[in-house]
Design goal:
Blueprint lengths: L1 H15 L2 H8 L3 H15 L4 E4 L2 E4 L1 H24 L8 E7 L1 H18 L3 E7 L13 E5 L9 E7 L1 E5 L1 H7 L13 E4 L8 E3 L6 E3 L5 E3 L2 H9 L4 E5 L4 H5 L4 E3 L8 E7 L7 H14 L8
Parallel strand pairs: 3-4, 3-5, 8-11, 8-12
Antiparallel strand pairs: 1-2, 5-14, 6-14, 7-12, 7-13, 9-10
Helix pairs in contact: 1-2, 1-3, 1-4, 2-3, 5-9
């Protein structure tokens, strides 16, 4: 019984990224959470969390143990439900919010495979580049590209993507390849005015991040259109690596100025309720995380 309680507390800390958030999630005091974590680390004889004035974060051992805790606790809950004659198969409506191109190229194949696996689920997908308010917008799961704005968000990291400058081989042959960001002033630039990632263009030369305010020859309200224009040799486009993954692999686009790239952006699946999330949310998260983490477009 004590082991189960310690695992429950640790899983809550791991998923909510903090002791205070875990205490609210479990409806216990923060002191109770701290005592349970201390007892767990003493019993296991290893450090699971690194503590600092800014909070806690998982050690590598802690990360692996957290995944096992979640799996075992879920199996226990499902066994209890099965013994009580309750449905353990996910059912109902699941709402997903995702950036447009990530949803189209990365999430849709996962969603279709998930719906085949769980016929009791119906899904609604909101394509939007702005990150939603999960509670106010009624969103169960959301894709976030970038750092977590709130350390208490319940999130699963699935990979990372790079911020690239790309052009077609034909354009580069005709106009030459820029060797440093300042050289872009002599090139034809394409931007998506609806995409915050592309304005201004960011680089990381020695000495810190620099911004280039682009003066485009073509401005589109769709990133798809901007990338299509680059494919037709209209100029250089700023994009995220998953958006052009297949074009790069097949040689239709080439990345330039790679030595000046800023740090890759993490990709997370954010969801509500943590350990109390419904079976449909938990099953979709596990299903999607497993598939997205192995996708080559997210291993930047």
């Amino acid at each position: 019984m004590e082991r189960h309680r310690q695992m429950t507390v640790f899983a809550a800390v791991a998923q909510s990224s903090g002791l205070a958030a875990a205490s609210r999630l479990l409806n216990v005091s923060e002191a109770t959470v701290s005592r349970a974590l201390w007892a767990l680390e003493q019993r296991l004889g290893t450090q699971l969390l690194e503590r600092s004035t800014r909070g806690v974060r998982l050690t590598e051992t802690g990360r692996l143990f957290a995944e096992e805790c979640v799996r075992l606790l879920r199996a226990t809950d499902e066994a209890d439900a099965s013994a009580n004659g309750l449905h353990v198969e996910p059912r109902g409506l699941l709402t997903l919010a995702t950036p447009v191109l990530f949803g189209d190229r990365m999430m849709m194949p996962v969603v279709l495979e998930y719906l085949d696996a769980w016929p009791g689920i119906q899904m609604s997908i909101a394509y939007q580049n702005a990150f939603p308010d999960l509670h106010e917008d009624g969103v169960d799961v959301a894709v976030l590209i970038g750092e977590l704005p709130d350390a208490h968000m319940v999130a699963r990291r699935v990979g990372r993507v790079r911020q690239l400058i790309c052009a077609s081989p034909a354009y580069l042959l005709a106009h030459g390849e820029p060797r440093e960001p300042v050289a872009l002033t002599d090139h034809r630039l394409i931007v998506c005015s609806a995409d915050s990632w592309t304005q201004p263009w960011r680089f990381e030369p020695e000495g810190g991040v620099r911004h280039l305010i682009s003066k485009p020859v073509l401005r589109c309200t769709s990133q798809v259109a901007a990338i299509d224009a680059a494919l037709q040799s209209a100029g250089l486009v700023s994009c995220l690596s998953h958006e052009v993954h297949e074009h790069l692999e097949e040689g239709r686009l080439r990345a330039v100025l790679q030595t000046f790239e800023v740090a890759p952006l993490p990709v997370h699946l954010i969801y509500r309720e943590g350990l109390r999330a419904s079976a449909r949310v938990r099953s979709f998260i596990d299903f999607a995380v497993e598939r997205l983490r192995t996708h080559s477009a997210l291993s930047a």
